[in-house]
Design brief:
Elements lengths: L1 H15 L15 E7 L2 E12 L8 E6 L4 E6 L2 E6 L8 E8 L3 H9 L8 E5 L8 E6 L7 E9 L4 E10 L3 H13 L2 E3 L2
Antiparallel strand pairs: 1-2, 2-3, 3-11, 4-5, 5-6, 6-10, 7-8, 8-9, 9-10
Helix pairs in contact: 1-3
């Protein structure tokens, strides 16, 4: 438990370090330079846009920005899957999808009550103005290679929600975990 608390403190220090607000034109499909804070230190990275256009009711058109140099991005219908471009991390990924006709509270309750995570340590972080996703974290242990699964939920302003599922190992909370949060922070809903 002490290891998990230490990791959470490290993550919180990274999270509460101010996000430099990227200049994100509403429909920019050009790469952007973005300052990310890793363990409290600024690092400028180049993020590439990935957009999803949907004609379905309850779904939003959106763009999010990801480090294409470090991650592979697969797009299939309503799913954006991000994995490291090195195969040595089998459990590291983030998936972003939309679920129509459901509220943030309903999705939050469904995930929190899932039997799949009954034996895990759970943490819950409400959305903020700076980071509009509700975050639910599940830790399946306190070893450095224990699996961490985070669910991020955000209203898509079209009668549904974005649900991002990020999974990695405990030791990667301050690396992949922080990067995934920054990618979500860049998500912009495109009104057409």
């Amino acid at each position: 438990m002490e290891k998990i608390i230490a990791i959470l403190i490290s993550t919180l220090l990274t999270i509460i370090t101010p996000f430099n607000e990227p200049i994100l034109p509403q429909a920019s499909l050009e790469p952007i330079d973005y300052v990310i804070y890793m363990e409290g230190l600024p690092e400028t990275i180049q993020l590439h846009p990935f957009s999803t256009i949907s004609e379905q009711d309850g779904m939003a058109n959106y763009v999010t920005y990801i480090e294409a140099d470090y991650y592979n991005v697969e797009q299939q219908d309503n799913l954006l899957r991000i994995t490291p471009n090195i195969d040595i991390y089998p459990i590291v990924f983030m998936e972003i999808k939309q679920i129509p006709n459901v509220s943030v509270m309903e999705m939050e309750a469904e995930i929190t009550n899932s039997k799949a995570f009954n034996n895990c340590t759970t943490f819950h972080t409400p959305s903020t103005e700076d980071f509009p996703f509700v975050r639910i974290e599940f830790y399946d242990g306190d070893e450095r290679d224990s699996t961490v699964t985070n669910f991020y939920i955000r209203d898509n302003s079209h009668g549904g929600v974005f649900v991002a599922t990020a999974q990695y190992f405990t030791e990667a909370v301050g690396g992949h975990g922080v990067r995934f949060m920054h990618y979500l922070k860049t998500l912009v809903i495109i009104e057409t």
